[in-house]
Amino acid sequence: EIVMTQSPDTLSVSPGERATLSCRASQSVSSNLAWYQQKPGQAPRLLIYGASTRATGIPARFSGSGSGTEFTLTISSLQSEDFAVYYCQQYSNWLRTFGQGTKVEIK
Amino acid sequence: QVQLQESGPGLVKPSETLSLTCTVSGGSISSYYWSWVRQSPGKGLEWIGYIYYSGSTNYNPSLKSRVTISVDTSKNQFSLRLSSVTAADTAVYFCARYYGSGSFLDYWGQGTVVTVSS
After folding, report:
1. pLDDT in tens, A66-104
2. Contact predicate B85/B16, CB 8 Å
3. Is B34 left (phi over 0), alpha (psi -120 to 50) or beta?
4. Using CA atoms, how far apart are residues A76 and A55, in angstroms rounded to an integer?
5. Which residues of chain B are at the A interface, by a Cβ-Cβ cutoff of 8 Å?
6. If pLDDT is split at 50, 70 and 90, which confidence band does B101 have?
7. Are B68 and B49 in contact (CB under 8 A)?
């Protein structure tokens, strides 16, 4: 099983500021990584796949980078609607695994 | 626009079997992989397993002995059965569609709460 570890657990950011979230894999997943956003009471929403490709309809302020074992999700200027929990997920191994999530909260 | 909707009992007794169905609308169930994911209260996401429209499956080893996922292409539905449930199986259960050959999840249902309690 590939273990996905996200950091930090909670990120406090002011609106308009930049947020940087990290995801580390216990072994290489190449670029087979996706990021999801989840708001309370809602299903996760796909943001990024292939480590850096934005899904349809996702604003350009969301960007992903990295490969192998180290990945980053950057939100360039946080909007009110971006405060949520973010999960990474690897799909390199048949046993798909998620990170534990990073909560982005208002500072 | 593809839409997924979970349905099934919201309350299941310990030791019984949890049964959920996901109905797909706005698109065909054929040619895709379909998945179940759950989220325990206040916790993260746990992948349960997936099924291809042809019927081939793959399950999380931690649940494999208790899980069955099946598909009914004539109804555009797929289903989850989880046997011998305990309180630890209390969660929100999501159904979702895999993009392409079972990679990432691009469409999700809204989720359904299942509580295991006597």
Report:
1. 999 999 999 999 999 999 999 999 999 888 899 999 999
2. yes
3. beta
4. 17
5. 35, 44-47, 50, 58, 60-61, 94, 96, 99, 102-106, 108-111
6. confident
7. no
